[in-house]
Structure formats: structure tokens, C-alpha cells
């Protein structure tokens, strides 16, 4: 059987660190509140003249280097992002041009923080269609540029970064075993950015009202997120006839340690097998999972044949999972 195997990973986070103590000087908050309510200690912040595709480009180059591939070897570049360089063209086209992947078809996926899982699911289908293809999947974000730095309810949570993986068709048991995708658009008001689109085109008024910033009902989203992560993880296990103990490592979307702990408890999944790096990066939206995949690969926390469970949720509301034999 042909499967889509992850042959390489790469990630990049901008060097500038913003700590909880730095935030104490910007809004009424405390290191103690942020760490105990979210699990975040610090996050990376992109420079003013940097755009999302710049971060994606660095992650892409690192993945290509690990794969030993040239940019021209890529057939597709699928980028999950909620903070694109521009409305159009897509951020993937900028990444394509910056790395020189002349043969690739590039496009973006917008499904909130779950975008990376949606992109991964599409990549799997492209490879099943033609196993000779090499497909790059990215999650890349500069959330700091859509953050209201006076809103303590959101500004302490988000960060910037990018992750990339490369998939190739391979005969055997290793690769993507399943993906499951969901959404409930009726819950859109839990997390959104109202300004700049066709509903509220940019104007002095939209800018004055701060409509170009993230709006979030954090507490309500928290409850939806716990249920979504638990349900989609259980669905993935059931589909693959697996039990929690069969999974070697779970990489959940890193939005809040308490959300992850509550979801793991609901499905009796041991926290020792859950990978967390939210402390260092905060919530980098669609980039949290590919950054974590790169870290576990480079730090030797996964080995060939391990079973990995990815699960995510995000604005929309969207949620999804993937099971991978590494
Ligand atoms: O990728 C998806 C993105 N988003 C999420 O996943 C967010 C999901 N939600 C969360 O992570 C949590 O709801 C938050 C971390 C945002 C908030 O934690 P919470 O335990 O749900 O707190 P809360 O919103 O119920 O607020 C509790 C209190 C409030 O004060 P009062 O009304 O009890 O006096 C807030 O005003 O904490 C206050 N508060 C803060 N205090 C210090 C809210 N933000 C802060 C802050 N520092 N940064």
C-alpha cells in the first residue's frame, strides 16, 4: 500500500523573545497569571519588516535541506496561515518564489489554527493520486501583527513562527494513516478578525475601531476546544482501531496547556506522552504543530515506526486530527 510518508521537517521562529515580564510592562497582567492560565512563558516576535512568507521560507529551506531535495523537486506547496502576507496572492506563492520552487503548484489553506491539518489531509490525497509527487506542507504565522497589544485577553497568548514538512509516496506501513476534519461555522464569533474583508472593508473607521485585530471569547472557546480535541482524538483512535496506549506521542495544537490537559483527561490519555512547547512559543496558530513535529524529530523524541496523533482546533470553529506512523 502506498502511504504519504514525512521525509523531512523544518521550522523557524524569529529570534526576538517577548517574555511575560515584558508584557507586565505593557498591559495589566502578571507572569504568574499567564503561566498558570495558559502555560506560556515567552513567545517570539517577528521584526517589523518581516512577513509571514519570510518565516515560511526559512522553515521550507530547513526541511529541503533535511530531505536532501532541491526546491525544483517540489510538486506542491500548501501553506496553512491566518496571517497571510497579503489578501492575494497567496502566501505560498511568495514562499515558492523565495525558495525558487519553479515546478510547484502553490496555494494556501484557511481553516484557523487547524489549517495545517487540513493542508496535510490534502497533501495525502495528492500523493495517493500520484506517489511520485513531493509535497511540502507549511503552517506559517505572524500573529503579532494582528494582535491588539492593549487587549490583555489576547495579547499574552499569541506568537510568531513557521513549520514545514515534506511528504513523499512510499510503499509500506509508514506515513499518514488517517485524517479527520470538522467545522461548525455557527460558532464563528468565538474567534475572528472583523476588519479588512468584504464584510467590513478597510476604512479609517474600521482602523479606529481596531477591527483589524483578533477578537476572542476566550472562556467560551476554551470549553469548545476541550470537547473538540477530545472528540477528534477519540474518533482517530477508533477509526484506526487503536487505544490511547498504542500512541507513542500526541502533538496537540498548542493554544493553552489547560485545554490540552483537560482534553487528555477526558479520553484518559497520559500527559507524559503529550508533547508541549507552548512555554517557549505561545500560540503560533497553524504553525504550532509543524514546529513541534520538527522539534521532536530533531531532538530524537520520535523514531521510525512510532505512532503519532495530531489534533487541533481553531477559529471557524474548525477541528481535526491525523494519525501518522513515523
Ligand atoms: O488557537 C485558538 C486560540 N484561542 C484559544 O485557544 C483560547 C482559549 N481560551 C483560553 O485559553 C483561556 O480562556 C484564556 C487564557 C484566554 C483565559 O483564561 P480563563 O481562565 O478562561 O480566564 P477568563 O477569561 O475567565 O478571565 C478570568 C479573569 C477575568 O477577570 P475577572 O472578570 O474574573 O475579574 C479577566 O479579566 O482574568 C482576567 N484576565 C487577565 N488577568 C490578568 C484576562 N486576561 C488576563 C491577563 N492577565 N492577561
Describe this structure in words.
This protein has 326 residues and is of the alpha/beta class. The chain folds into two domains: 171 residues, Thiolase/Chalcone synthase (Peroxisomal Thiolase, Chain A, domain 1, 3-Layer(aba) Sandwich), CATH 3.40.47.10; 149 residues, 3-Layer(aba) Sandwich (Peroxisomal Thiolase, Chain A, domain 1), CATH 3.40.47.10. 33% of the residues lie in helices and 25% in strands. A hairpin with a 3-residue loop joins strand 12 and strand 13. Helix 3 crosses helix 4. The longest helix is centred in the last third of the chain and has 22 residues. The mean pLDDT is 98. The structure holds oxa(dethia)-CoA. Oxa(dethia)-CoA binds next to helix 2, helix 6 and helix 8.
Any descriptors?
binds oxa(dethia)-CoA; globular; 2 domains; five-stranded mixed β-sheet; single chain; Peroxisomal Thiolase, Chain A, domain 1; 326 residues; 13 strands
**What letter string, H or E per element, gives the SSE order?**
EEHHEHEHEHEHEEEHEHEHHHEE
User: What is the percentage of strand-forming residues?
Assistant: 15-25%
CATH top level of the largest domain is: Alpha Beta
Strand order of the largest sheet: 1-7-6-4-5
- Based on the coordinates given, report the CATH architecture of the largest domain: 3-Layer(aba) Sandwich
CATH homologous superfamily caption of the largest domain:
Thiolase/Chalcone synthase
The CATH topology assignment of the largest domain is Peroxisomal Thiolase, Chain A, domain 1
The secondary-structure class comes to: alpha/beta
Largest beta-sheet details? 5 strands, mixed
List all distinct small molecules, including ions and cofactors, that are bound in this structure.
oxa(dethia)-CoA
Mean pLDDT figure? 98
Helix residue percentage:
25-40%
**Nearest-angstrom radius of gyration?**
19 Å
Tally of distinct domains: 2
Query: Which residue ranges are poorly predicted, with pLDDT under 50 across at least 5 consecutive positions?
Result: none
Number of beta strands: 13
Amino acid at each position: 500500500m502506498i502511504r504519504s510518508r514525512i521525509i523531512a521537517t523544518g521550522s523557524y521562529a524569529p529570534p526576538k523573545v517577548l517574555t511575560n515580564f515584558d508584557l507586565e510592562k505593557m498591559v495589566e497582567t502578571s507572569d504568574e497569571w499567564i503561566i498558570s492560565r495558559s502555560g506560556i512563558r515567552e513567545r517570539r516576535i517577528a521584526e517589523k519588516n518581516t512577513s509571514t512568507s519570510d518565516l515560511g521560507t526559512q522553515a521550507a529551506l530547513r526541511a529541503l535541506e533535511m530531505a536532501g531535495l532541491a526546491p525544483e523537486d517540489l510538486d506542491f506547496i500548501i501553506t496553512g496561515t491566518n496571517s497571510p502576507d497579503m489578501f492575494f496572492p497567496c502566501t505560498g506563492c511568495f514562499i515558492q518564489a523565495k525558495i525558487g520552487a519553479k515546478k510547484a503548484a502553490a496555494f494556501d489553506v484557511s481553516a484557523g489554527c487547524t489549517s495545517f491539518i487540513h493542508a496535510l489531509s490534502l497533501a495525502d490525497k495528492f500523493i495517493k493520486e500520484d506517489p511520485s509527487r513531493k509535497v511540502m506542507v507549511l503552517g506559517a504565522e505572524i500573529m503579532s501583527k494582528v494582535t491588539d497589544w492593549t487587549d490583555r485577553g489576547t495579547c499574552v497568548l499569541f506568537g510568531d513562527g513557521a513549520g514545514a514538512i515534506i511528504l513523499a509516496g512510499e510503499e509500506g506501513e509508514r506515513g499518514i494513516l488517517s485524517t479527520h476534519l470538522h467545522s461548525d461555522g455557527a460558532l464563528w464569533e468565538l474567534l475572528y478578525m472583523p476588519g479588512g474583508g468584504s464584510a467590513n472593508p478597510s476604512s479609517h473607521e474600521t482602523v479606529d475601531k481596531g477591527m483589524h485585530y483578533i477578537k476572542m471569547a476566550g472562556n467560551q472557546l476554551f470549553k469548545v476546544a476541550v470537547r473538540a480535541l477530545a472528540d477528534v482524538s477519540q474518533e482517530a483512535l477508533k477509526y484506526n482501531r487503536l487505544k490511547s496506549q498504542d500512541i507513542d506521542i500526541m502533538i496537540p495544537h498548542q493554544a493553552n496547556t489547560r485545554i490540552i490537559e483537560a482534553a487528555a483527561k477526558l479520553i484518559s490519555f497520559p500527559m507524559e506522552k503529550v508533547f508541549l512547547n507552548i512555554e517557549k512559543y505561545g500560540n503560533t496558530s497553524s504553525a504550532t504543530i509543524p514546529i513541534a513535529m520538527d522539534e521532536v524529530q530533531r531532538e530524537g523524541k520520535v523514531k521510525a515506526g512510532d505512532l503519532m496523533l495530531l489534533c487541533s482546533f481553531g477559529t471557524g470553529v474548525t477541528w481535526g486530527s491525523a494519525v501518522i506512523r513515523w
